[in-house]
Write a structure and sequence with these properties.
- With about 375 residues, the protein is an alpha+beta fold.
- It has three domains: about 110 residues, Butyryl-Coa Dehydrogenase, subunit A, domain 1 (Orthogonal Bundle); about 110 residues, Butyryl-CoA Dehydrogenase, subunit A, domain 2 (Beta Barrel); about 140 residues, Butyryl-CoA Dehydrogenase, subunit A, domain 3, CATH 1.20.140.10.
- The chain is built from ten helices and ten strands.
- A four-stranded mixed β-sheet has the order 1-4-5-8, with helices on one face.
- The longest helix is centred in the middle third of the chain and has 37 residues.
- It is globular, with a radius of gyration of 21 Å.
- The two termini are about 30 Å apart.
- The relative contact order is 0.11.
- Flavin-adenine dinucleotide (FAD) binds next to strand 1, strand 3 and helix 10.
Length: about 375
Amino acid sequence: MDYELTPEQSEIQRLSRDFARREIEPAQVQMDADHEFPYELWKKWSDLGMAGMLIPEEHGGSGLDPVTYILALEEVARVSNTFALIWQVHVLVANIYIKFGSDELKDQYLPAYASGEKLGAFGLTEPDAGSDAAGMRTKAVREGSDWIINGTKTFISNAGTDISDGLVLMASTGERPNGKKAFSSFSIPQDAPGFKLGQSWDKMAWFGMDNRELVFEDCRVADKRLMGSEGSGLSQALDGLNLGRIAFGAIAAGLIQACLDESLKYAKERVQFGKSISSYQLIQAKLADMATYAEATRQFTLYAANLHAKGRPCHKEASMVKLFGTRHATQATLDAFQIHGGYGFMQEYKVNRFFREGKILEIGEGTNEIQQLFIARELGC
Ligand SMILES: Cc1cc2nc3c(=O)[nH]c(=O)nc-3n(C[C@H](O)[C@H](O)[C@H](O)COP(=O)(O)OP(=O)(O)OC[C@H]3O[C@@H](n4cnc5c(N)ncnc54)[C@H](O)[C@@H]3O)c2cc1C
């Protein structure tokens, strides 16, 4: 497959890299200090057309392709996994509206998502249903021309900020004709009666991102808030999660590259036994692994993004990219910590944050074990 970048893709990649260094880097320091959502940064990023990168121009977006998005996302993640994840969730939700929203919902949400005035959130996970999404207890029941929703979601990103506007919610809606459980997705407005923000989580990293519980107690929404057809919720989620998993590949590539950048610089400067530690082969092996896995993850992610952009099947590749990239990202954060010795334990060194950020990439967007199950299924197991 030919992945030579178009002039426009190269330009967006360069713009993202410059913006990340100039604007995201200081905002990351601020997020680590105050644990606040980076509103100013989000506005600046949105003003560049990035919040609406994949939203068609007729809905106020930039109308760009998934490959350009993946290139920009890696640049962001290289500087801040937190901001990369905030953006990734927003893009995922915008995509659900693009593909499955009615014209009315598109008009209501997409221009505001494109301008960054509103932030997208997606609610699937529940306290007792994570990997086993089909075990969810949140139920939506028809009552006249409305739906009544009861249940609790947890860990949900982006739902509790000042610019959040509800979420796309997944709920069970009875049974399909074949007797299997049916799941449907709903666009829930922030002011829906019976929808409440629950407690926010105190996390080990991603401090500027809002993650919280969401409670639905006889929450009432109109029938027109159903996304797509009744019972098509899980297939919609799967569609969105393919791009989400490819995005996790880009975030992993950014994190591995960041580990390499910091470790190489430090290893060249740090002198022990009269020589810089970069001259020792055991250190070199770690640096060589990081460089190899950064490049392999980047190229594999671009391959999967190209498949996705061309509308070709990429379910297996999306899972592989997520599994491969995030596994090596965790290892890279451990190696970067090791190369920094005791300084890696200190908050002022970036690798300390990388270490805290790496592991969760193996869990979010479907755990790596679940990716292995998907891949095995594609192999015919
Ligand atoms: C910071 C953060 C942000 C998040 N944001 C969102 C969000 O915006 N929206 C949303 O819906 N969710 C979100 N999530 C939830 C995330 O997708 C889930 O945490 C993830 O899917 C795993 O679910 P769980 O945590 O309940 O783990 P569990 O499903 O309980 O898994 C526990 C362990 O068991 C393993 N396991 C489970 N089943 C199997 C099996 N069949 N075979 C082998 N191993 C298995 C898992 O791989 C894992 O290692 C977020 C989570 C975090 C931590």
